[in-house]
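Because discrete structure vocabularies remain unfamiliar, we first show an illustrative case, written as a sequence plus integers encoding its fold.
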Amino acid sequence: MIRPPGALSVEQLLAQARAGLRRLTPAQAREALVDGALLVDIRPGWQRAEEGEVPGALVVERNHLEWRFDPECDSRLPEVTGYDLQVIVLCSEGYTSSLAAAALHTLGLRNATDVIGGFRAWRDQNLPHRSPRPARHGDISGSVGCC
């Protein structure tokens, strides 16, 4: 199989995204929150239910992120007060969040970054989190896809 000219592998895309970020460890992210940064959890609902949540994190699933964080978009969140906002993106393991933070950079939010290791690293370092909710009849969840 020959990759088309200009096409990147997912590993190259991820490396390119991360090259423009100053990624944070979970402890550094926690310190930034104390200083006023905004933690944004982009995991889908089933994943937050399975893994747990960070209290106070703003939940914006990945497919809505750019619309909610473009400072000039009518669909932006009230928390998005300008381009200098420090946004820390959180996914499950720190892969999708890197791509999402890079997308926020493209919108002009140059202080956007993500958490190395994602929610799982946050939880493993015993930073504030709520445990997973018990599954209820009819819940749709599972380990489909990544991050």
Q: What stands out?
A: Strands lie at 38-41, 58-59, 87-90, 113-114. The domain at 15-124 is CATH 3.40.250.10 (Oxidized Rhodanese; domain 1). Confidence is low (pLDDT under 50) at residues 139-147.
